[in-house]
Specification:
- There is one protein chain.
- The protein is of the alpha/beta class.
- It has a single domain, classed as Rossmann fold, CATH 3.40.50.300.
- The protein is 34% helix and 29% strand.
- The strands form two sheets. The protein has a six-stranded mixed beta sheet. A four-stranded antiparallel beta sheet has the order 2-1-4-5, with helices on one face.
- The longest helix has 18 residues.
- The protein is globular and about 50 Å long.
- Bound molecules: adenosine-5'-triphosphate (ATP).
């Protein structure tokens, strides 16, 4: 499903190279949920941007469903991101003047899907994430946790191959954080959606069955366990 193969990345500024990722290698199977854990500056955002096709790696390869994304043209990449990848952001990134339902429908508007089908899918997903009754409200009328639920529904509406959640609970209190991670874990198990949760919080990472840890751009741990996560 996702294969990161011998990936290294460095930034070049004014002729000077800053190495950021070193020989990162791992795979994620369909239906898995993993945490990508690392402290600030460890290279998580860079790796996420590479996996989402927002930048090309200096060395190595990233395959999603067998497609090496660094070999795609800009147009292929844009289409790929629109259809195969879902994003959940720390700050929700909802559009304030659209209703909750319209926000969730938006990725399908860009795909030219008809209004009736868009609405059906959005309402189904809003019910799935537990805020079916909020569909006609605006984001500002919702709590942070509810807004993150909207953003989760939006990330799923194109039925992507993989969803990247970038610090999805970074703006939430501990109780709401737990509820949102519970929801992501439930969606992973009931809908078999593949999730990569990027976090600097060990508490969040420990909730998944597999943790990949980055330190100073190196993959220092790839640990899975079969029992119940804590
Ligand atoms: N465009 C750039 N040019 C040079 N160095 C960069 C660039 N972008 C990031 N870096 C460096 O790469 C390293 C990793 O940064 P990155 O943002 O990937 O880390 P992170 O783990 O996501 O941190 P945070 O949790 O704070 O977002 C840092 O040392 C950063 O200074």
């Amino acid at each position: 499903m996702l294969a990161v193969e011998r990936l290294s990345h460095w930034f070049v500024n004014g002729g000077e190279e800053t190495p950021v990722l070193h020989n990162i290698h791992f795979t994620v199977e369909k239906g898995e949920i993993i945490a990508l854990l690392g402290s600030s500056g460890s290279g998580k955002s860079t790796l996420l941007n590479l996996m989402a096709g927002l930048m090309k790696p200096s060395k190595g390869s990233i395959l999603i469903n067998g497609h090496p994304i660094e070999k795609m043209t800009e147009n292929q990449l844009a289409e790929f991101r629109r259809t195969q990848i879902g994003f959940i952001f720390q700050a929700y990134e909802l559009i304030p003047h659209l209703t909750v339902r319209e926000n969730v429908e938006l990725p399908l508007v860009f795909q030219g899907i008809k209004a009736k089908l868009r609405k059906e899918k959005a309402l189904f997903l809003l019910a799935k994430v537990g805020i079916g009754e909020k569909s006609e409200l605006f984001p500002s009328q919702l709590s942070g946790g509810q807004q993150q639920r909207v953003s989760i529904a939006r990330s799923l509406i194109t039925e992507p191959a993989i969803v990247f959640a970038d610090e999805p609970t970074g703006n939430l209190d501990t109780k709401t954080e737990k509820e949102i991670i519970d929801l992501i874990i439930e969606l992973n198990s009931t809908l078999s959606i593949t999730f990569v949760i990027v976090t600097h919080e060990l508490e969040v990472a420990k909730r998944t069955r597999r943790v990949i840890q980055l330190r100073d751009g190196f993959l220092v741990e790839d640990a899975s366990w079969a029992g119940e996560p804590e």
